Amino acid sequence: MKKMLAAFAAATMLMSSMPASADLIVPNLSYRTGPYAPGGIPYADGFNDYFTLLNERDGGIGGEKIQVPECETAYNTEKGVECYEATKGQGALVYNPLSTGITYQLIPKVSADGIPLYTPGYGRTSAANGKVFEWVFNYPANYWDGASVAIRYLLDQNGGDLKGKKIALVYHNSAYGKEPIRTLTELSKKHGYDLLQIPVDHPGQEQKSQWLQIRREKPDYVLMWGWGVMNAVAIQEAANINYPMENFIGVWWSGSENDVLPAGMGANGYKSLAMHGTGMDYPLYGDLKKYVIDAGKASGAGDQFGSVLYSRGMYAALVISEAIRKAQQITGKSNITAADLRDGFEQLEITEARMTELGLPKFGQPFKASCSDHGGPGAALLQQWDASAKKWNLITDFIAPDDEVLTPLIMEDSAAYAAENKIAERCK
Amino acid sequence: MLYREAGDFKTTYVADSQTFPIKFDRIRYYIVVAIAFGVIPFVIDDYWANAVFVPFLIYAIAAIGLNILTGYCGQVSLGTGGFMAVGAYACYKLMTAMPDVPIIVHVLLAGLITAFVGVLFGLPSLRIKGFYLAVATLAAQFFLVWLFNKVPWFFNYSASGQITAPERSLFGIAVTGASTPAWAKYLFCLIILFTLAWLARNLTRGSVGRRWMAIRDMDIAAEIIGVNPLTAKLSAFAVSSFYIGIAGALFFTVYLGAVEVGEAFGIQKSFLVLFMVIIGGLGSIFGSFAGAAFLVLLPVLLKNVLVGRLGWPTDLAANLELIIVGGLIIIFLIVEPHGLNQLWRVAKEKLRLWPFPH
Questions:
Q1: Where are the transmembrane segments (chain B) (predicted)?
Q2: Do the beta carbons of residue B53 and residue B59 sit within 8 Å?
Q3: b/e A161-173 (16+ beta carbons within 10 angstroms → b)
């Protein structure tokens, strides 16, 4: 008993978190285990590798090295809170948890602690309203933009008319999957299509009944808000019922190699939205290969290089590093604080010229943030899977969302949040 | 030497029937309570509160609740996650509907509402038991989670179906919401846990508890000697659900602040609390604490050692953590099927005889 107690006491002393350091610290709340790992692993690798590249090639940002301590959340909110608290004390500059659930946890916490939260393409959509959400940024696009872009694309395909069409939404039955419902309902009023809501419960391995329902109802189009194993299962099931793949469109979180490869040729023609370009025909990948992959400094197993979600993690890291640069430029010092970085995020502008300079021409849309606009323009591309070449191909240019419908929804939702939490509007 | 009954004289029946009959035990208990109330609140920081103490305290409440039902009354339940969800959603609806009422009232009311729901789902226990009852409570788990996901009234028609705890304070100090100081969170949960544990200890020692235990040990014999199975079983369900509901309310309001029902209160939560009770020891209050500590603190500790100190990759550490915790559970249950509490009891028994083991 005594031995056990002594061991326990020794162990509890070890529980205190790591000491702070002088470098710029950007924690990576990643998940490499659990049902969402197929999405979490490539994203985390891309995120780490971009910062490794900056450290190796440029010696960091503005002469400051970047440290990326990783913490495993397993997509679980309790572990996410633990990770947040553990890394907060080290002087974290910004959080990017890649989970809508954890984002909802962290929004009030980061606002109280004064640390920016960057959630590109996920998280709380109405955080696009910077007047209410001072510390949260979700440019260049969010879920409601995605829903609107998908409908715009379908309008385009149908000569501008969706009257009488039936559109099914297969969604992850969680905060994440429910996000687009409000927009799609609103848009159905405007364009006259029928919306069929089909929820899939966590983690999404069991979808037989949902796809039987789709076979029975025969919707003209199926939209999907899925993540992790749910995507691969859905695409396999759609192939099993011979659903026409070109009428099946996933959100950008349902459009990676891991989702379509298991279904083999059955997935041929499946479409998904994309926040950014796909493939490796950009100069930056040459640098990544030279300084990170070939140097043996790649994160994880190094086998995700160039995949869709790897590029997304890399893109998120790129935006963060640009914001750090901006903050250094504003304050005139290299060792910035979390509060400085917030200003950097708010005044960030990424132009096409800058993207070319960074080695990613025509990869992401140019955007400019402001005090009230934390959401960016919200345009998205469409990509289609070519199963024989095992390659995603971009099939459209950037499509802009329908802001006429979205802006009032964002205002309404953020106003409700402000009222609930007694937040006064900024940016007068 | 220190741990013995000799010389510890008792002259009244009250003194003789106290919870800690041995002086050393009593002193130890007072010291633990004094440290918990008098020292930790002054040294606690955000990490220790949010990652270690608050989840431990809340899971301890849930474990005591399930222990009352399963350990003391012998009714197997897999519906803990669902009942925690009832507590959380009840508290959310009360907090948003009546913002001016103190938060402690909402938490207690959430417990009462859960008690009512628990009694409803406890009704089948009058006819069925064992595995059959486990399946009935499993149905409660799935039904409740489905209900809170399906009906928008429960989450105030928010776009995402998440519920978020607004800031509420007690005596002018915030206890829910993001700006809550670490010590306030800790103390709020600790006071509730202390009260509930004290209450549970005394309930189980009294006639109510003896009725529960009679039903657990042999329900037919209990009925013959005059225990009413209806009131005994339903009161166990009510008290147990009250505790679990309060744990759910605190889990949502104080600990996480925002909750998604499928993720936070899914079936794995029911299993987690059941494992706490089994590992800690069925039918013991101390066991509930020990089980909660084992399953909440050990993973955090392993993570900090493997990733924080040894610098291992996070995925390797996460998988190893599952293997170690799972392996320890198996070893514990082989070595001591009655849980940590039995180890503790044997250790105390040995200490009483020491240094003369015969």
A1: 27-44, 50-69, 76-95, 101-123, 130-148, 183-200, 242-259, 271-296, 316-335
A2: no
A3: ebeebebbbbbbb
- Model confidence at A22, pLDDT cuts 50, 70, 90, reads low
C-alpha B78/C-alpha B273 separation (Å) is 9
Q: Which residue of B has its CA nearest to A13?
A: B301
pLDDT tens-place string over residues B26-75: 899 999 999 999 999 999 988 889 889 999 999 999 999 999 999 999 99
Q: E-strand spans in A326-403?
A: 349-350, 367-368, 381-386, 391-394
3 state SS for A129-189: ECCCCCCEECCCCCHHHHHHHHHHHHHHHCCCCCCCCEEEEEEECCHHHHHHHHHHHHHHH
Residue A13 — pLDDT band, cuts 50, 70, 90?
very low
C-alpha A165: how far from chain center = 30
CB A13, CB A84: distance < 8 Å: no
**Residue B96 sits at the chain A interface (C-beta within 8 Å):** yes
Residues of B in contact with A203 (CB under 8 A): none
**Would the pLDDT of A11 be above 70?**
no
Contact B56, B297 (CB under 8 A): yes
Contact of B2 with chain A, judged by CB distance below 8 Å, is answered with: no
Which pLDDT band, with edges at 50, 70 and 90, does B358 fall under?
A: low
CA–CA separation, B29 and B340 (whole Å) = 18
pTM of the model: 0.91
Q: What is the mean pLDDT of residues A236-241?
A: 93
Of B262, B300, B347, the CB nearest to A174: B262
Q: Is B160 on the interface with A (CB under 8 A)?
A: yes
Query: What is the distance between the alpha carbons of residues B78 and B39, in angstroms, rounded to a whole number?
Result: 37
Confirm if A420 and B166 have CB atoms less than 8 A apart. Answer: yes
Contacts of B342 in chain A (CB under 8 A): none
Q: Do B160 and A88 make contact, defined as CB atoms within 8 angstroms?
A: no
Q: Which helix (H) or strand (E) holds A121?
A: none
Distance CA B248, CA B148 (A): 14
Predicted complex ipTM? 0.87
Task: Mark which residues 29-48 of B lie under 8 Å from A by CB.
Answer: 45-47
What is the tens place of the pLDDT at every residue in B86-124? 999 999 999 989 888 899 999 999 999 999 999 999 998
